[in-house]
Predict the structure of Siderophore-interacting protein.
Amino acid sequence: MSKQVRKANVLSTEQITPHLQRIVVGSEDFNDLTSQYIGNYVKVLFPKDGEVDFNLKTACMRSYTIRHVDAQTGSLTLDFVINMHQGPATDWAKIAKVGDELGIAGPGPKKLDNYAHSHYVLLGDLTSVNAIKGYVQQLPLISKIDAFVHVPTEKDIIDLETSRDVNWLVTDNADEALLSALQNLHITAEPPIVFMALEAGLVRKAKALLTEQFNIPRGNIFSSGYWKKGVDSEGYKKLRQRDAQLA
């Protein structure tokens, strides 16, 4: 990811579903950002005690996938999950207003870089729905795509701006729904490439199922635990930092 931190401001904010707040941010420093970055991630640096710390080593920040880039201004559209998890990002997104200052670092690369495979399996939830959006738009039309997105309510289903089929799993039990969907996959002779970005415990379960039941090589699976049940975002960040130090 680029270490450049750009000062930005909120251009608009709107609650689009019960659990998603869509915020558009802009900056004079966004001129180099184009639609090729849709689906990439940026680090959002949030205000703390009314001030934004623009130092990547000490800032309060989280990663978000770019949903849209305005071709004229380079402004970025980001979707924030609200009313589900606790933490500084959620708290900020719920009260952010036009003109508020923040920092944007990146963009960083997409997880997937192989766009010439015959079969892809994509698994996500509201925290990663725009990563799924980016892939279903950009993967080859001749490729088979099995895409599953968990949402807590039907009102949380959003337009992914694609003609490809996406399976929306509307339920309170994401583990049961996603694991059941995986068990019914039809795998061709060539193992698929898998992208998943979900709750950390569910990522482990899904990865075990894919490797043990379908013999999908671990090298074909690109996964991220975006959040963890029972732990707020700040606590989960500290857990991941601790695990990285122990690895």
Observations:
- The CA atoms of residues 193 and 220 lie 5 Å apart.
- Residues 239-247 have pLDDT under 50 and may be disordered.
- The first strand starts at residue 5 and ends at 17.
